[in-house]
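User: Teach me something about this protein's shape.
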Amino acid sequence: MANANILAKKQEVIDEVKSKVESATTIVLFDYRGLTDNESKELRVKLREAGADYKVYKNTLMARAFNDLNIDVNASLEGPSAFAYGNDAVAPIKVLTEFAKTHPALVLKVGIVDGEISDTKQLAQLAKIPSREGLLTMLAGALIAIPRDLSISLDLYAKQKEEN
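Assistant: First, the predicted structure itself:
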């Protein structure tokens, strides 16, 4: 039987994974084989700039944590897996997708966005969504357009009335 200290440490890791999964909006599992140390550091910096991070855990411990949370991603835990997480729904996905374009060694496996499991096709679609700031800018532009168009219409109407 395994040593009690070892079992306690493993349970700590499982609890850590569970807390990260419960607190994160987005989780992405990806294969990092073939990335150099410098590339891994570069990826970590880019993720942190986007308000996300990643960590590598043993697949067996991640599988236990996901099973405890009733999330079925066991098929994606084949081979080395890293675990990216963040509170922005698309930021980690966008960073990993962009990074994978220039670093083919990085392969996305599966994601969990707002509690829903997303395959690689869905992750690719989510990566195309503008960032939160971009969406807010679009919303602000749309909201400004209404009073702008109204003021232009009223101005044209007033000029038309002056001419008559």
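Now, about its shape. The chain has a mean pLDDT of 86. The two ends are 98 Å apart (CA to CA). If you'd like, I can walk through any region in more detail.
User: That's plenty for now, thanks!
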